[in-house]
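Students often ask why we bother encoding 3D structure as a string. The short answer is that it lets us treat folding as translation between two languages. Here is a chain of 305 residues written in the first language.
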Amino acid sequence: MSRYYVINSTCQKYNDTWVDDAVFAASYHQWSALIPLIEENRDAQTPETTGITTDKIAKRAILIEKTLFMENRLQSYANTIGNSELLESVSYSASDLKKARDTVVVGICNTVRAKATANAADIEAYGVTAALITDLQDAIDAYSATLPKPKAAKSQTKTATENLRELFKKSEKYLKEHLDLDIAVYKTTSPEFYSQYNTARFSVSTGRRVIALSGKVIMADGGGPVKGVTFTITAQLNGSAKAGLVENPKTIVKKSAAKGNFRIANLPEGTYQVVVKKIGFKEQVLTITVASGETTRLKVELEKN
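And here it is in the second language, the structure alphabet:
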């Protein structure tokens, strides 16, 4: 993108030179129209998931609190009337709820809510009002609504990455097949424009400039960092990365440290496949785009098998 920005700035600087040149103007406008699309997908490629995870954790805590209160009241009522079946059906500890998977905890809370509804008239004397039962249902609905969001964010990242690959290919095609050819007419009529265009086009970023890839891996559902996760990074040679520019065209292997982080200091720009593995967790295969002069940040959430 740094190269594209300089090319675009150069063309705009010499707008008066080519504005009446229908061929060059058409080539420039077709190419420059891709820049905002690339920016849009670049921003979508790394969505902010911290807020999503924080919201999910907060809503889960509220749900557990309301469910435990309802359980307490139902257990008191069941003990009073000697209903062992009811007592057994709502005997979940705070630990049970905290450790349960997303769909499991929703199921438990729905069971407690259903028992409260079925015994609503009898447990009113135990401090359970219709409003409290409704509050529990609202908490269940609010938490359930957060469950698809992390996956939706991952899907958004994947789609944006695929879009970027195609947009960069299309942009390079326009440059090579149009602007790089059309600029030739200004070699003698506007040598300064011609020279600055070629400097921007071929000297700002050649793909040899190394950049950093940093990553972090955590447990899904808002868990902590995961140590010892293997990241196998492979350049996709049919993309923008060139075989001759990749130090190891086969694989680069890194493992996450104690805090779930890893870093690769040197990578040419291009497209890479990343295979994420650790025993006991589901394998993930990701595609990332590395841009010259920028740090590409990868965040992975692992799910247990």
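Translate back mentally: Confidence is low (pLDDT under 50) at residues 204-210, 239-248. Keep this in mind for the problem set.
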